[in-house]
Amino acid sequence: MRVLLDTNIIIHREANTVINKEIGSLFAWLDKLHYEKCIHPLTLREIEKHKDPKVITTFKIKLDNYVLLKTEAPLTPLVTSLSQKMDSSANDVNDTKLLNELINNRVDFLITEDKKIHDKALLLNIERQVFTIESFLEKVTSENPDLTDYKTLSVKKEYFGKVNLSDSFFDTFRSDYRGFDSWFNKKSNEPAYVFLDSGQTLAFLYVKKEDENEDYSDISPVFPRKKRLKIGTFKVELNGYKLGERFLKIIFDNALKQKVDEIYVTIFNKRPEEERLISLFLEWGFKYWGTKKSSSGEEQVYVRDFGKSFNVSNPKFTFPYFSLNSNVYLVPIIPEYHTNLLPDSILRTELPDNFVENETFRNALSKVYVSKSFVRNLNCGDILVFYRTGGYHISVITTIGIVESVISDIKDEREFISLCRKRSVFNDEELIRQWKYSKSKPFVVNFLYAYSFPNRINLKKMIELGIILDVFSAPRGFEKISKSNFEKILINTNTDRNIIVN
């Protein structure tokens, strides 16, 4: 992308006194996005006439930081007509010539603080290509959101530069990829996801958004043009704690936030941890695509379609999307178990430090809900809306889950414990008590932890909206709700509509 900078932007940048504090952010984004910072020959001449000789000197020293347009585009009839109507001075004419470069497609955007230029752009029907500093920053920050952060668990977002590269965890990367340390150090200002235990790295994930112009010539077959999330560096060393699933949720969360069409990973298949990751990818809808060749060898390429769709027979393949054609159930969960089972749905009143211990049921993306509800006829693909109990003002709905399966025909205590262990919040003793001392035997709902509502609505609000009749009608088991009431929940919780398949 080529961005033409008006003289006033250059003056902001090179002046001794900071006129606009956002100028630093503007230039940081231009560099981050690898946009060419272009200046018009007229700007060069205007700056040479500037009253402050320090600005002139500073600019000439930094001239190599800009791309000087070598020629001026001929004025189009439309621009000539506009100039004749609106330009009353030489400066006005020069401003119109900047817009003419856009009209002739010699640059992609123009950034200026000049209101009259914006008025002209509107008349020329190119206002979407002309920005103020503020509007350009709004554009790029919305199109390039930060990676999702996580408040709970030992998985943390951290800069490359703060990760201990000398940790033996990275030895396999050094062995597999030539120049790995150099590449890693160059990423010092970029974020990744890290799991540490006693100061040692046991899991690491780096993801990167790529646009339609990415070069995939080293991948066979070559990718078609799409927006993608690349799983750039991914390794899980610790077994038994479902960390792979925890990192998968991070991948899917970022793919959703970055609005990509596809997710892909390139991976060697040399070691047990790589084999486990490949099996995990396949389980969650990734498919083998082909190979990637480099100086380090040949990697396998796996791709996950992230287009909006829903697989009713296997929701993992289209996670985290869910369908409005599915049945919807309100499901109660008491505060004691809520954030342990659904860690990303932590409440503002809870302390994240209370939920950082590494537990399998927290990390698992496919979870178990144990119930004694009379309603047991749930189906794969049905939607669960989790309702954290607590009272009129404190009870809130927090989370969407997607049913994978329901197991109600459980023969004995041993099978019950086996079905629930590691993916439910209950330990063996609690499970035994539930099995032995219940008039009606519990059953198991396997579900996918899909989405945490950005805005929480409490029992009081749900009664006002007509979702729940009164305080005595709060759900005690699986309570089916209408599609219209579910729509009220989606609206009032500010749910991201991108995850919904109509």
Quick structural gist:
By secondary structure, this protein is an alpha/beta fold.
Tell me what portion of residues adopts beta-strand conformation.
Answer: 15-25%
Overall mean pLDDT stands at 84
Count of discrete domains: 3
Number of H- or I-type helical stretches: 18
User: Could you list the spans in which at least 5 consecutive residues all have pLDDT below 50?
Assistant: 350-361
* Global Rg: 28 Å
Please provide a written account of the structure.
- This protein is α/β, with parallel strands linked by helices and 502 residues long.
- The protein has 3 domains: 2-143, 5'-nuclease (Rossmann fold); 155-305, Aminopeptidase (3-Layer(aba) Sandwich); 324-501, ph1033 like domains (ph1033 like fold, Roll).
- The protein is 33% helix and 25% strand.
- The chain has an 8-stranded mixed β-sheet with strand order 6-7-8-10-11-13-12-9, covered by helices on one side.
- Strand 4, helix 7 and strand 5 form a beta-alpha-beta unit.
- Helix 15 (413-420) packs across helix 16 (428-436).
- It is globular.
- The two termini are 36 Å apart.
- Residues 350-361 have low confidence and may be disordered.
